[in-house]
Design a protein that fits this description.
563 residues, Aminopeptidase, six-stranded mixed beta sheet, five-stranded antiparallel beta sheet, 15 helices, 19% strand, globular
Length: 563
């Protein structure tokens, strides 16, 4: 057999190839694929491939050698919980027509209604985000799989478990390895500008593996919410003469009306582009503040979004509030244990205190902003009140820090959230206070906050033009440090412009109040994950992921306060 050499070199026994063929069960569209096989001991076993869910194996008769340590044998065992030997056996059982050669695997598509390029990348390379590399190795094949097509998977792409070198997943395109400024410049260089009978437009040619939603709308405009992305994608498709947005071929010319472009992509001479370049210049001029690895003299305020009667975004069986609170508490614990920074929180869940949890099963219904007196997030007052009290409290704590001769440049405000974006978006995004959208003055009315001591002391803010510019510059520097820390630990990061200074939603442009009015020298609103993306949701559900995320945040803070 052609495939025996590579399988044997990877530790797979020849009997693994001599298994019963897969059987398609047609019940409804898309139907699951079931494959019957036998273990080395001769026990009958069932494998299941589900649309968008991946491969799992019946656990009751599975040999212990096929399972990773600590995994139970009962129920359906996900592919990722199989040992290297178990993974090789499962793939040979599910795809008996595949040819495992010395330098590559040749996979024959047998179930196009369930298989996808993402699924193949996940199973054979270790992560679905390697799909673009897989497509690059098969340039003559369409992205929509067809029965009988043979996909080439070179050894260089195979996961380590399958005898390959193993490699970290690509996120989207080569420019993802650039820093934020260089990446945005690369995206801008892909545009050309023109005008036709419908007006001015920016022209972009779709690359292989790209979609109109993510690679055009989310990248080149400030729309990220599902409704806004879908509506603008339809508008751009009509403007470009595209009948089906799901069938766009590489090389397709897309016309983006100039009025929808984000500031970095506006035409020469526009005020938006001028403001963008002014901020970038300020970032380059701004010198980092040194605090040492122990963060001595640094004042940090941590804010966990939503809480109490407000669970925040919901999708895939998760809700925002408790999960970001858990990450925030983990960040607080690590900072207190490992650094000399002064750390405070804006919000507390009375039933939990400042503790983290392994399992989060139901929403917490009680939360309070830690003002004097504490403000219950119980729905008795408009939700905007609790949002404003967060920055009021933080500013009051920063003011007290300055009175004790604390360095104002060593003040940091971080607000943690989880978004509900278009499902094509995955990974963390970071919002910074865009200088153009920060007001020169603002006063919080006292009608709903009259009893709050901090509101009387710190409910008014004033910023000079230089302060607004400097604030965005420092916040961008921190965000860059955070992206680096996340990527170093293989934590997903949004593939298209993960650092943003504006939210475009509901027909208007704005930035969240917690960073818009914050007096901290550096501030950021961190969208940890996109709940509507299934992989992001699975990550957020995992306590190990939440701990890794918290550690990356602390590492980023240390890196930021290092020249």
């Amino acid at each position: 057999m052609e495939g025996v050499s590579l399988l044997r070199s990877a530790g797979v026994k020849p009997w693994a190839i001599l298994l019963l063929p897969a059987v398609i069960v047609v019940a409804q569209e898309p139907a699951p694929v079931l494959a019957h096989a036998r273990t080395p001991e001769g026990r009958a076993i069932l494998l299941r491939l589900l649309f968008r869910k991946g491969l799992s194996v019946e656990g009751k008769a599975l040999p212990r050698a096929f399972l990773t340590r600590g995994v139970e044998e009962s129920g359906w065992v996900p592919f990722e919980n199989l040992s290297p030997q178990g993974k090789r056996w499962a793939l040979a059982a599910l795809f008996p027509e595949d040819q495992w050669r010395q330098e590559e695997v040749r996979h024959r598509v047998g179930h196009p209604e369930v298989e996808s390029v993402w699924t193949l990348a996940a199973l054979f390379t270790g992560h679905g985000q390697n799909y673009d590399r897989l497509m690059a190795e098969n340039p003559d094949l369409p992205e929509k799989l067809r029965e009988g097509d043979v996909w080439r998977i070179p050894r260089s792409l195979l996961s380590a478990d399958l005898g390959g070198p193993g490699r970290r997943p690509d996120r989207s395109q080569p420019e993802d390895d650039l820093d934020d400024e260089a990446r945005v410049a690369a995206y801008r260089g892909m545009l050309s500008f023109g005008e036709d009978e419908q007006g001015k437009f920016a022209a972009y040619r779709i690359r292989k593996g790209e979609a109109l939603y993510s690679s055009v709308v989310i990248r080149y405009t400030d729309r990220v919410d599902p409704k806004g992305v879908n509506e603008l994608a339809d508008l751009i498709a009509k403007r470009s003469g595209i009948a089906d947005v799901r069938g766009i071929q590489p090389g397709q010319l897309v016309k983006i009306p100039v009025s929808f472009l984000a500031d970095p992509f506006q035409s020469e001479g526009s005020s938006g582009l001028a403001e963008e370049r002014e901020v970038r210049a300020e970032v380059r001029r701004t010198v980092r503040v040194e605090a040492g690895p122990k963060l001595k003299g640094v004042r940090i305020i941590l804010d966990a979004g939503h809480g109490g009667v407000d669970p925040g975004a919901r999708a895939n069986g998760l809700w925002e509030s408790d999960f970001v609170y858990d990450i925030t508490m983990r960040v607080r614990r690590l900072l207190e244990q490992e650094t000399d920074a002064q750390v405070s929180s804006t919000i507390r869940y009375p039933g939990l205190g400042f503790k983290s949890r392994e399992a989060i099963r139901t929403p917490s219904h009680a939360a309070e902003i830690l003002t004097s007196p504490p403000f219950a997030v119980d729905g008795e007052s408009p939700s905007a009140v609790s949002v404003h009290l967060r920055w009021v409290l933080a500013n009051d704590l920063f003011a007290a820090f300055q009175k004790t001769r604390g360095d104002v440049q060593k003040t940091l405000f971080l607000s943690f959230h989880a978004d509900s974006l278009h499902p094509s978006a995955r990974g963390s995004m970071i919002y910074v206070p865009g200088a153009a959208l920060v007001p020169s003055t603002f006063s919080l009315g006292g009608a709903k906050t009259g009893r709050i001591v901090e509101a009387r002391r710190s409910g008014r803010v004033a910023f000079t033009g230089k302060e607004k510019l400097q604030s965005e510059a420092r916040s961008r520097q921190f965000s860059e440090a955070l992206l680096t820390a996340l990527q170093k630990d293989s934590i997903p990061v949004h593939a298209n412009r993960p650092i943003r200074n504006v939210i475009h939603r509901g027909g208007g442009k704005w930035i969240p109040a917690v960073i818009r009015y914050s007096t901290g020298a550096t501030k950021a609103l961190i969208e940890v994950a996109n709940l509507t993306n299934e992989e992001d949701a699975a990550n957020l559900r995992d306590p190990d992921f939440r701990e890794r995320y918290a550690a990356a945040v602390v590492n980023a803070i240390r890196a930021y306060y290092r020249k």
